[in-house]
Amino acid sequence: MGKIDDPQINHIVATLKALEFGSVVITVHDGEITQIDTTEKKRFSLTKNQQTKK
């Protein structure tokens, strides 16, 4: 396992703190973090004017 640098840890922690809904994917090659992908989902509640089709 390679060394994990503080900037990598700080970036992962900051991303997790800012994320309400979504995912964080950490890509590792040869025991080293090479990429961090974030997918954020936005949730919107339906308004009373919208009705579902029956």
Task: Describe the secondary-structure layout.
Layout: H1 6-18, E1 22-29, E2 32-40
Antiparallel strand pairs: 1-2
Could you name the key traits of this structure?
single chain, 54 residues, alpha+beta, two-stranded antiparallel sheet, 1 helix, 2 strands, 24% helix, 31% strand, elongated, DUF2292, DUF2292 domain-containing protein
Verbal overview:
With 54 residues, the chain is α+β, with helices and mostly antiparallel strands. The protein has a domain at 6-40. Helix content is 24%, strand content 31%. It is built from one helix and two strands. A two-stranded antiparallel ribbon has the order 1-2. The longest helix is centred in the first third of the chain and has 13 residues, at 6-18. The chain starts with 5 loop residues before the first helix and ends in a 14-residue tail after the last strand. The model has no long low-confidence stretch (mean pLDDT 87).
